[in-house]
Amino acid sequence: MASQTTCVFRRRQITLLLIMLLPHLFLDAVGARQCFWPSPAPEEAGCLSWRVMVEANNARGWRTVPPQCVGYVRGYMTRGQYLRDLAGVMEQASAYVDEVAVDADGLDAWVLDVDDTCLSNLFYYETKQFGAYDPSAFKDWASRRACPGIPPVLQLFTTLLDKGFKVFLLSGRDEETLGPCTTENLEAEGFSGYERLIMRTPEYRGQSSSLFKSAMRKQLVEEGYRIRGNVGDQWSDLQGDCVGDRVFKIPNPMYFVP
């Protein structure tokens, strides 16, 4: 009898101990979860939401990166996440290229934007704290022929040429002032063998990028080309007439081009 009483007493003690410890175990588990999935700082969370709106084309017409997000954008562009996101886009584009049969008539085409698609302007915009577009300052920067090529896009470009696509580079840069230096910069960074570099001529000055690029793509289609793919860092590269069978948006939270 004494032995049974002792066992009952011990069970009650263990039960009471568990009741007392359960809240602490729960809190420890919550704490561990929070350590494993750290919550972003409020400012960073707000800037992440802003960047998602930019990429989803819900944030339009903005002229500069919000002041509180300058550090966030710099970190995004320079600490690896931009390159990881870009690699994901290029993987999707490459998988699509593998699926497309190229016709022997030589009219299957791709359109690639230039600035921050083929050539990077990160150094320029970082120096300006991602401020408003300055035509004179950008002209000076582009004239140096020092824009680095973007390796994952160059790899896609080479794949397209190897498979037999005609590649057209379509840029909103002014042809009269930046034509030669842009051609030399592209060549120096490995972008050679494309079908044509199309730039903004005097009759299209002052026109939005969306309208200009739409008109240029329409001309290509009228020439008989089939635009099988289109790559750009701005939504204005990928909207309007004759955008192509598929479009691929490269991330860019540095500036907005209408």
UniProtKB/TrEMBL annotation:
GO terms for molecular function: acid phosphatase activity. Residues 1-32 form the signal peptide. The keyword Signal applies. Gene3D superfamilies: HAD superfamily/HAD-like. Coiled coil: none annotated. InterPro entries: Acid_phosphat_B-like, Acid_phosphatase_pln, APS1/VSP, HAD-like_sf, HAD_sf. It holds the Pfam family Acid_phosphat_B. Keywords: Glycoprotein, Signal. It comes from the Eukaryota. PANTHER family: ACID PHOSPHATASE-LIKE PROTEIN (PTHR31284), HAD SUPERFAMILY, SUBFAMILY IIIB ACID PHOSPHATASE (PTHR31284:SF9). This is Acid phosphatase.
